[in-house]
Specification:
Largest sheet: 8 strands, mixed
Number of strands: 8
Shape: globular
Structural class: alpha/beta
Helix content: 40-55%
Strand content: 5-15%
Distance between the termini: 7 Å
């Protein structure tokens, strides 16, 4: 039987909502991406991937995203953060150099305490606190070396800590400590880290954010670099609809108030995409 991998990319709290909407919509049409032989989660995708790999019903995840945020605050995301991101990409010669630059920003930034952020991640994950039986890889970046790292059940690191690391946006969220080292957002290596699906026969990529830039490869570029034998499908938000949901700022992607609209947009998109994905995914 052909091997299948599901890649879940970065995209803030709105990206979590959009991906859960897509997963629920596909499941309604009989396409269960949770059956993947490997799930790869980056940032927002780490949250969704952990829940999906643990067998949480996509419809339950979707319903949770439709609930109003009830005063949940959005993290402070000044425009200067986006400017620094673009500037550091343009100045870096390698992805590790870029990661280290962003790591320095993260380590010096004033954010909420790490314990508070970890508790928030634990709330997002709900009952999912241990590594699931289904293979799951979570990406992060070492804040000092800038190198990408991957965590799985064999790593010995706690699941909640690994998800917190993968979703630790520099300057917005505190770096996560695992084994005495500090880690930042896996999206600082790539918005999708699709290359980790190399060798799988069928690969579906859910990517709220697809653009790379400078030394960072975009999602489409990484898909193109997979083996010609790999059949692939990319689902990404339509650009105009995405702008309507989150606006044009980085802060829009971090704003919990946008979750319900993003989840509904993903669900509606999945109903249109289901025939294409089913043709690739089903045995």
């Amino acid at each position: 039987m052909a091997s299948r991998a599901l890649v879940l990319g970065s995209g803030g709290v709105v990206g979590i909502a959009w991906q859960t909407g897509v997963l629920a919509g596909l499941a309604e049409q009989g396409v269960d991406l949770g059956e993947a032989d490997l799930l790869i989660g980056t940032s927002a995708g780490a949250v969704v991937g952990a829940q999906l790999a643990a067998g949480v019903d996509p419809e339950r995840l979707y319903a949770g995203q439709l609930v109003p945020p009830d005063g949940e605050p959005a993290p402070r995301t000044p425009m200067s953060g986006l400017v620094r991101l673009v500037w550091n990409i343009s100045r870096s010669k390698t992805t590790a150099e870029f990661g280290a630059r962003m790591g320095r920003i993260a380590l010096s930034a004033a954010t909420v305490p790490e314990a508070e952020r970890r508790a928030e991640i634990a709330r997002w994950l709900g009952d999912v606190r241990q590594w699931p039986a289904r293979p799951l890889v979570i990406t992060a970046v070492d804040a000092e070396t800038g190198e990408r790292v991957t965590f799985d059940a064999a790593s010995g690191a706690g699941l909640v800590d690994c998800v917190a690391a993968s979703a630790a946006g520099p300057g917005i969220r505190p770096p996560a400590t695992i084994g005495g080292r500090r880690y930042i957002d896996g999206g600082m290596s790539s918005p999708g880290n699709v290359d980790l699906a190399a060798g799988y026969d069928r690969v579906v990529v859910l990517a709220p954010v697809t653009r790379g830039g400078g030394v960072m490869k975009g999602v489409a570029e990484q898909i193109a670099e997979l083996s010609p034998r790999s059949r692939t499908a990319l689902i990404e938000p339509g650009p105009e609809a995405w702008k309507q949901v989150v606006g044009r700022s980085l802060g829009g992607m971090m704003n919990p108030a946008h979750r319900p609209a993003a989840a509904r947009a993903g669900h509606a998109q999945a109903l249109r995409e289901a025939p294409r994905i089913a043709e690739l995914w089903r045995p």
